[in-house]
Amino acid sequence: MLKFWKKKPPAADQATPPVPASVAADAAATAPAPPLDEAAIDAIAGGGTDIAGADAYADDAGGALSDGDPADAAAAADEDEAPARRSWRDRLAGSGFARGLASIFKRHPLLDDAFLDELETCLLTADVGVATTTDLMDDLRRRVGKREFADAGALLDALRADLVARLKPVEQPLDVGAGGRKPFVILTVGVNGVGKTTTIGKLAHRYKNEYRSVLLAAGDTFRAAAVEQLQTWGTRNAVSVIAQGSGADSASVIFDALQTARSRGTEVLIADTAGRLHTQAGLMDELAKIRRVLGKIDPEAPHEVLLVIDGTTGQNAINQVRTFREAIGVTGLVVTKLDGTAKGGVVFALAREFGLPIRYVGLGERAADLRVFEANAFVDGLLPASLGGHG
Ligand SMILES: Nc1nc2c(ncn2[C@@H]2O[C@H](COP(=O)(O)OP(=O)(O)OP(=O)(O)O)[C@@H](O)[C@H]2O)c(=O)[nH]1
Ligand SMILES: [Mg+2]
Hints:
Shape: elongated
Largest sheet: 8 strands, mixed
Bound molecules: guanosine-5'-triphosphate, magnesium ion
Number of strands: 8
Number of helices: 16
Strand content: 5-15%
Oligomer: single chain
CATH class of the domain at 184-373: Alpha Beta
């Protein structure tokens, strides 16, 4: 558990270390612009200077249609109701949470105290949170007392409906075409190892499938391998990656990328950042700097700050949201690794505590495993109606 703690976190308040020569050479070939300090960025933002070497980038916009309605068709095919639902179920059925629930319904055909107690324990163990679990169980116990449910199937229906109702308010998909912003800038943030870079790769894949032009910014200048990891996703999806060489400053990489995206008319810019803990004041300050610097080109950028949460994290996710919200503001969440975890209940805890939109969830490591969050499909994946002997 708590995978992100396993990675050795970078020393607190440390300045960005230089990138090794091999990566630097690779990155420099892609984007030779030198690191910028904020004064230089001010000068550039004011003067509208073009970035040196921007022409050298491969043109990912080739063939991309800004107003392409075929995108809807492709997206619709991808999100087609029945297969999408099956896929949620396939992915979530193996999770510890879903298996725990399935086992309770199988072993307790009668709605007795043992059944209710086990259900309560399962919800708590899965990190649904004490407050939500108490609400849910008080309601179910009251209704069982009034003999409202004929059998476990009827109770399951009520539980499913209640869970969906709790998640519906945070089912707010991200519309990167909204407001005609070009580019729509997404900044991804989160603690170490939660799945930021992987999520960016998956998003690039998704938006390309919607015939949008996409550019990625390698704003994680902290770990050399991070640039390579993003470049691999870029190559896989035929999307350019803006990176800088040795000693790069994260804000300047993302600033460069925004300038490039503007000059190319790119529709979506997604920026990676280094994983950071709330105790690393220097790294948290860096996020504020990124926001300031982007604001010099587009006062509304970033248009979306996506906080990526590891679904196996448990209640610690609540602290993470709080900290990042204070440091940079968060407009949407991505909950990853919901496949195979016993802790997927954190989604309910997050919904209750913050009401922040859950934009996407990660149901596996492949590009297609990032799903737009849907309350119905999520609950159906955890608790199929068939568990209660129905349908
Ligand atoms: N099973 C599963 N694994 C995932 C998912 N999303 C990401 N991962 C895996 O989680 C690990 C960490 O992912 P990264 O994308 O490198 O995480 P990160 O937040 O960028 O990490 P840092 O840059 O080190 O902070 C990788 O092995 C990913 O394949 C998911 O939805 N399901
Ligand atoms: Mg990363």
